[in-house]
Amino acid sequence: MIHSELLFYLSMTMIVSGIVAFFVLLFVPSPYGRNANSAFGPPVPAKIAWLIQEIPAFLIPVYFIIELLFFKTSDSANVRDAILLLAPFIMHYFQRSLIYPMLIREGKPMPAVPFLLAFIFCIYNGYLQSSYIINYGYFHWDFISAAGYALFAAGMAGNIHSDQILRSLRKPGETGYKIPHGGLFSLVSGANFLAEIIEWTGFALLNRSLPAVAFALFTAANTAPRAWHHHLWYLKKFGDEYPKNRKAILPYLI
C-alpha cells in the first residue's frame, strides 16, 4: 500500500509540475537551443548533455527488467506483461540517449540548469514508469492496446524524421537558420514536439495507468509552449517567407 501511494503522489506531483511549467514556459522560453542563456549556468556540450541527461530513463527500466528476470520469483505472464508495456519506453530512450547524441553535428551547448533538471526528471520518470509497470502493470491485447502501439510507433517515427529534417537544413560549415519542410513540418512548426506528444499519448493508451497519463500530460504541457515560441520566432525571422498555413503545435488549429 505504501508503495502504491508513493507512485500515486509521484504521478500527481508530475501533473501539477507540468501545469506550472506550462504557464511559466508560455512567458519564459526554455533556456537552451536558440534560446540558450548563460544566466542558467555554464554550458555543457550538446552531445554529452543529451547522453547523460537521457540515459537514466533507459538504464532504470532495463535494470527493473533484468531484476525481474533473474532475481525475483515471478511467473512468465508477469515478465511478459512488463516487457510488452515497458518496451516502447526503453526503445525511445535508447534512441534518445545513445543514438541521437551521435547524430548531432554542431549542436549548441546546453546551460547547466536545464541539463540538470532534465537529468533529474529522467531519473524520476524512469523510476515512476518502471516501478509501476513491474509491480502493477497488466497487458491485455485489445483495440486500445493496438492503438497505443500504433500511436507510439507513429510518434517515434515522426520524431526521428523531424530530427533528421532539422539536421539536414545546414550543410557542413554553414551557419544560420532555415525553414524546415516536409513531414510534420508541413503542418506545424513544432513537428518534433507534436511527434513526442503522439508518442506518449500512445504509451498512456497502452498502459492505461496514472503514471503513464501523468507523463503524457507533462510532455504536452512542456512541449506545447516551446512549439509556440518556435512558431513566433520563425514568423519573426522569416516573415512572409514562412508558410502561412503552418500552425504551432496542432495541425489546422493552433
Automatic annotation (TrEMBL):
It catalyses: 17beta-hydroxy-5alpha-androstan-3-one + NADP(+) = testosterone + NADPH + H(+); a 3-oxo-5alpha-steroid + NADP(+) = a 3-oxo-Delta(4)-steroid + NADPH + H(+); androst-4-ene-3,17-dione + NADPH + H(+) = 5alpha-androstan-3,17-dione + NADP(+); 5alpha-pregnane-3,20-dione + NADP(+) = progesterone + NADPH + H(+). The keyword Endoplasmic reticulum applies. It comes from the Eukaryota. Its EC number is 1.3.1.22. The chain crosses the membrane at residues 7-28, 48-71, 109-127, 139-160. Residues 109-253 form the 3-oxo-5-alpha-steroid 4-dehydrogenase C-terminal domain. PANTHER family: 3-OXO-5-ALPHA-STEROID 4-DEHYDROGENASE, 3-OXO-5-ALPHA-STEROID 4-DEHYDROGENASE 1. Belongs to the steroid 5-alpha reductase family. This is 3-oxo-5alpha-steroid 4-dehydrogenase (NADP(+)). It comes from Macrostomum lignano.
